[in-house]
User: What shape does this take?
Amino acid sequence: MIPFSNKHNKNTERTGMKFVVGIFFLIILVIFFRLFCLQILKRQYYATMALDTHEISQIVNPERGQIFFQDSRTGETFPVGINRIYYKVYAVPKDIKKEEVNYMAEKIFEILKITADEEKDLIRSKLNKKGDPYEVIKNKIDETEKFQLENEKFKGIAFIEETYRYYPEKNWSAPLLGFSILNREQSLDGKYGIEGYWNDALNGKSGFMFGEKAAAGGWISLAGITSVDATNGEDLILTIDRSLQYKACSRLKAGLEEFAAKSASLVMVDAKSGAILAMCSLPDYDPNDFSKVTDQNVFNNNTIFTPYEPGSVFKPIVMATALEKGLVNPNSSFTDPCERQFGKYTIHNAMEKCYGQITMTQVLENSVNTGMIWVEEKMASGLLRSYIEKFGFGKKTGIQLDSEVAGNISSLDKESNLSEAQASFGQGLTVTPLQLAMAYTAFANDGQVFEPYLIKEIKHADGSVEKFEPKVNIQVISPRAAKLIRGMLTSVVENSYVYSVKMNDYYVAGKTGTAQIAAAGEYSEKTNQTFAGFAPATEPKFVMVVKYEDPQREWAESTAAVVFKDITDFALDYYGVEKDK
Assistant: This one.
């Protein structure tokens, strides 16, 4: 038997010791590396983590400013965009006994008026999530619903108070006002209309609170709190007259249904200031339930967002330019050739009528396309375009609302006799109803075009009040030319629209437009129908444009003109305007 070697045993011990020492040094290196990361590389991160364990901060949201309509006769105001407290109801399923779920669910359905099977199934599944600490049942319930649920004394049902925007007038001013949504910071953000354009002013400025946290999570002491107060949003008093708005929008809507039109728009402007008295756009929606809207196009305000070819309602713009330049007068004689040829295109009068020898006033009364071409051809090159721009077309009016478009008059950039001929009777260019209304203020106000404005006053959080005054945009034509075109438009109503617009006690000035709608490069049988005018003609109080898209009637005289008269009759009585007949 060979004895075990002592030398081999010693070598094994040395190897073991080296391994242990190596492991020890490796552990030390890892510890030093971790300390280096914690104290040097990630010092700021962990300092912040530590800070969060004993310090607390909180954003303080301001109160969003309110929006008001007014009575333009008395100055009395009416809230149309306000803040209202609602509640989020949520469940704590871990605190709900399984045998109580069905009864609880049925009471929730009854109180919150939940009828859809899919929604019922979802709520039941949330209540049955054993161990779950938080499940939202429904947002935006009112105080009555909250009170009824609290009376049931359900264990595992709780509430969170939330501020939402509330619109007392609901649908009939929605495209004008827009709406507000709750953002991630639980403050309100405006979208579209007044709410969108004036969002920053309405929102105000957030504040904050910063201090030490107690073990229970609250503030340790009020003395140690650093805070910056929130600045509440500004209140907006609009120029919109509540009574006129209601009358105008409800009558416009009745017409939309009666004429089976696709859309409608209306704008009424104070003839002596440019203040917007009423503005309607259809179809509309309830801004309190904007999430239910399936077609987002209804959020757009057609009076400023949807340009269209205006047709004959544009003719007074061209005639006024010729009057201003002395190229014609109301009694200038014209012999109707019945049609005009421009290359392969033939332009006729409506229903291919031929009028023989007539005056310029009769050209407007009978809406004679060939007569307007004759007027336009008297103008020097570029003159018509320059005056169309002066009247405010092809550019935004600057109205204080989201999503205004400029319209398009680029067809007049072409050196084309056809383009200018078409423009003379409102074809080949696009405008908005608001642009038309502001252009017609020149006829009603001695040639001056006003800037439109919607804000009468801003009430700041510090109590100060900022007031807005009328601004003349441009003296586009002379007072003489304005009076001549006003007389011609009065004659149009008195002699052409006897049954639809003519009134017993007042003179009204205005013009219809029945314009074919272009589709795929061709004009279709569908039409846009407009009436633009003002009353009383002798001393105008307001200018108004009424427009229907694709109504199931042949002419604007039986749609837009009728609605114009009804609203005018109401407005003149509302203001107590003295009769001028």
